[in-house]
Amino acid sequence: MAMPSALRTASLLLLGRTAVRVQAVLGDPAARLFGLDQGEDPYPVFESVRAKGVLVPSRMGLHLTASHELCSRLLRDPAFGVVPAGALSPVDTTAHVGGRRLMNPVEDSFLVLNPPDHTRLRRLVAPWFTPRGLRRQADMIERVVEEHLDQVAARPTFDLVRDFAARVPVRVITDLLGVPGADQAAFARWGSVLVNALDGVRDMAEMRALHTGLREFEEFLDGLIAHRRRTPGDDVVSALAAEPELTREDLIATTELLLVAGFETTVNLIGNAVLAVLGHPEVRERLLDSPDHAEAVVEETLRFDPPVQYTVRAPSEAVEVAGTRLPRGTPVMLMLAAANRDPAVFADPHRFAPGRPDGREHLAFSSGIHYCLGAGLARMEAAAALRGLFRRFPDLRAAGRVHRRPSRVIRGAARLPVSTGLRRPIRQNAR
Ligand code: HEM
């Protein structure tokens, strides 16, 4: 019956929110993080965790670390396995709907599997992300960037996220998966809804949106898989559909993972990089003088304000870490964004300084066996977007309030109004 389970879910969500609020007031570090208001700066909370020690306990049933050394160590330690970030949520987002268990975009995928299943599934999609695979994407990415800049150039102001940053990754991911052009808008919508599953849902409205999005997306993928079995193309879904050993569930989960992992993360990398450039006139000047500086700006954005703020690991057996005994299964929140500002590794860590010598030590793409498969692609997309944007609009300015995303795991702007700074809008296709 739908009602009792909806009521139970609503009660659990409410209880969860209340517990977080109470613990946050009492100064619990994890509760302070989960309880951050939309748009609130998380970096002071990260620093308060760092000040408390290397491994900090929380009454919310987990431990936290802001230490770069410990994050790197646990990410590479085979004794620590993956735990979905949503597992910290009070409700199970994979609950049955209409008598059928829905897949969850990340919790059924290889992102949260340990070897040997992780190795088997990751290996199937890895060829698309090799340097050779990426070279095939490079021209397409430049073309998509220019096309979308053409579209906004006729307007004095536009929303950098919705009208530009979101457009490039969705084209890249749909191209990779072999999704026909007409379905790209729906893909962008599903990507935005499904990414919330990373956090665990906060209220019933999000829960319903997630279930509807998952159902629609699964139906769409079933159709796409059937189509690609009949008419294979040179794309990930066609290749996976041709694998005799792969179950429907693995195929759907892998495709969902690529959408969720590759879409909003890249949108936010582009958004966070633009925000950083707008706030640092000296960086803009350097970028205008030499557009290749975009790569260093992207790298420093990954360190300074990473789109994925944290991940979670748990030991498969009881272990001692930093003088604390952790029972089997205790979740440890590895605060990647905090590790990226660890003064033990980065000189003057709160300064945005593209090209810094220690810049590539960041953990924005994680480390170990789950190191981001799309890191090269994301770097390429974001650098192309930044180069194209500032070449076309050297005087780009913020033109209104930045609206932040509600998520704690994913950090970035949901809306970022900008003005092109051009006195007369450029006619379409004029460069
Ligand atoms: C700025 C953009 C991106 C960021 C910050 C990012 C970050 C991450 C992080 C932190 C992880 C590991 C999580 C963990 O260790 O628990 C990860 C995994 C992953 N990412 Fe990305 N990612 C980005 C873009 C992409 C893109 C464009 C794709 C593909 C189209 C992608 C595909 C994946 C996949 C498949 C995994 C799972 C790897 C595994 O479990 O073996 N990512 N990403």
Topology of this protein?
Blueprint: H1 2-25, H2 29-34, H3 43-52, E1 56-57, E2 63-65, H4 68-76, E3 80-82, E4 96-97, E5 100-101, H5 117-125, H6 131-153, E6 157-159, H7 160-165, H8 167-177, H9 184-194, H10 204-230, H11 236-241, H12 248-262, H13 264-278, H14 281-289, H15 294-304, E7 311-315, E8 319-321, E9 324-326, E10 332-334, H16 336-339, H17 375-392, E11 397-398, E12 403-404, E13 413-415, E14 417-419
Parallel strand pairs: 2-10
Antiparallel strand pairs: 1-2, 3-7, 4-5, 6-14, 7-10, 8-9, 11-14, 12-13
Helix pairs in contact: 6-8, 6-17, 8-9, 8-12, 9-10, 10-12, 13-15, 13-17, 15-17
Bound molecules: protoporphyrin IX containing FE.
Organism: Saccharothrix coeruleofusca
GO molecular function, one term: iron ion binding
Family: Belongs to the cytochrome P450 family.
